Amino acid sequence: MQTGLSRALGIEYPIIQGGMAWVAEYHLAAAVSEAGGLGLIGAANAPADWVREQIREAKKMTDKPFGVNIMLMSPHADEVARAVMEEGVKVVTTGAGNPEKYMEQWKAAGIKVIPVVASVALAKRMERSGADAVVAEGCESGGHIGESTTMTLVPQVADAVQIPVIAAGGIADGRGIAAAFMLGAKGVQMGTCFVVTDESQVHDNYKERILRAKDIDTRVTGRSTGHPIRTLRNEMTRRYMELEEQGASFEELEYLTLGALRNAVVAGDVKNGSVMAGQIAGMVRERMSCRDLIQKLVREADALMKGAGSDE
Ligand code: TUI
């Protein structure tokens, strides 16, 4: 499964673990990198000191490359952008914004920069600014999403840029990986299927909620506020959408989601918390180690891409 992308990143397989807020901490990131993929630490809204500590802990667990995802809406984005350079991080991915103002300094520090984009326009702009690759993330993903699906976004981005495209959104097995390659991707990023791995530190209730999710169990809150977020449906999404329909204010709606992700991930409140997960949650059925998951993904994708597993 080696591609130009995996060689450029110094990893065995072109499989990237999403930089999920509160979920993507160093145990998970190090386990994914040790298993031959690219693990990411999700900086989310955390201050730079937390991110530094996470990077140092990950380095104790693996000599292989790992990355940091910087959520650009974070009030700490500037200081985290500096910290990743000072800590010698090899790969930075960004989400929920335009990282242009940091690109030059990151490139000068020798960091491979991979912005997550949800449109062709931003992908082209990132290529012009010197991005090494882009993640084209479809709205099947969990968390903060754009408008287009993976099926439509990936080939359009692949046609528009020369740099490698990594597909994200709705991928959780070898079929999804093979399909992403057929759409022009040179790698994949996956989130939901890594949440339930043995090394993931999220509360057991969160894992169980994903494992018993059905195909139609996700909801998107915040379309009216301009911050659409995909989560598994629960009491929180029901109340949110009810209020949203009644034309509640931005403040009222935000109040419902404040700290809600933390409540789900850390405290295990999957009723009133925000259980971010992608639409593929309905297919995520098994707990296993990151190593077993990545080996299974590679085996499945390899078989399909060699023609085995077809109907012939
Ligand atoms: O960033 C994500 N997914 C996330 S971030 C997150 S943390 C959070 N928690 C609570 C509220 C808000 C965020 C949870 N999930 N994915 C990457 C992604 N980026 N998806 C979509 C985008 C995106 C959207 C618009 C990137 C750029 C953009 O426009 C930028 C511009 O200026 O054109």
3D structure, described in words:
The protein has 312 residues and is of the alpha/beta class. It folds into two domains: 219 residues, Aldolase class I (TIM Barrel), CATH 3.20.20; 63 residues, no CATH class. The chain is 42% helix and 15% strand. The chain has 14 helices and eleven strands. The strands form two sheets. Strands 1-9-8-6-5-4-3-2 form an eight-stranded parallel sheet. Strands 7-11-10 form a three-stranded antiparallel sheet, with helices on one face. It is globular, with a radius of gyration of 18 Å. The two termini are 23 Å apart. Bound molecules: ligand TUI. Ligand TUI binds next to strand 5 and strand 7.
Summarize the topology.
Blueprint: H1 4-9, E1 15-17, H2 26-34, E2 39-42, H3 48-61, E3 66-71, H4 77-86, E4 91-95, H5 100-108, E5 112-117, H6 120-128, E6 134-137, E7 143-144, H7 150-160, E8 165-168, H8 174-182, E9 187-190, H9 192-195, H10 204-211, E10 218-221, E11 229-232, H11 235-245, H12 250-257, H13 260-265, H14 290-305
Parallel strand pairs: 1-9, 2-3, 3-4, 4-5, 5-6, 6-8, 8-9
Antiparallel strand pairs: 7-11, 10-11
